[in-house]
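Justification of computing resources. Each target in the renewal requires a structure prediction run like the one illustrated here; the chain below, 220 residues long, is used simply to show the kind of job we budget for.
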Amino acid sequence: MSSVINTNHSHKRVLRARLKSFLRQIPQTEINNQSAAVLEALKPLLADYKHIACFMSMDRGEVVTTPILKWLFQAGKTVYLPRCTSTDASGHINLRNTGKPHPHLTFHRMRSYAAVESLRPQGKYQLREPLLEIPHPLPPKLDVILVPGVAFSPQNGARMGHGAGFYDDFIHRTLHHHAQKPLLVGLALQQQLVQDIPMEQHDNCMDAVVSGDGSIHWVS
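Resulting structure tokens:
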């Protein structure tokens, strides 16, 4: 079993590097057009949900989320954004059974779109994150998480992230605190759809993947 896990991990590492290089070459105008199609598909999908976590998109190579966030506030949703931390900084429970502190996400409620616009790059990864809250908030009870990634499979909802395990850890953390998993919706440019993504034991599949042509791929 360990050899299979190691093979999958190596395969993911190679695939991730290739895809990231490819995604950086997509023209921004195309990314913007696909992002607009994703937003239109999300509007009816999210209509009956209230508490929604999103993410702040990076500069290139993924769905642009600022229009999505603006619409969420206009639609009266309760919006949360992630902040990178670690168990030694937050004091939260270690769920990886390593005996050592490890990275994880906290999600913070954003009170307005203006507050989102005011966010500036910070921290180790220079991401636009919510400001530090003390005490670090426990996982909120979310209805939906809009999930970023490097690649998604529309067939089985498999996801390949950036390799740090932040979202898989948060999903595990949410189950630990609430015993119920939110609806997981991956946001993908068409170039991020991959038929075969190697999976590891800790990986979580999406319930749906919304792609840049406006399609919603539900996973049965």
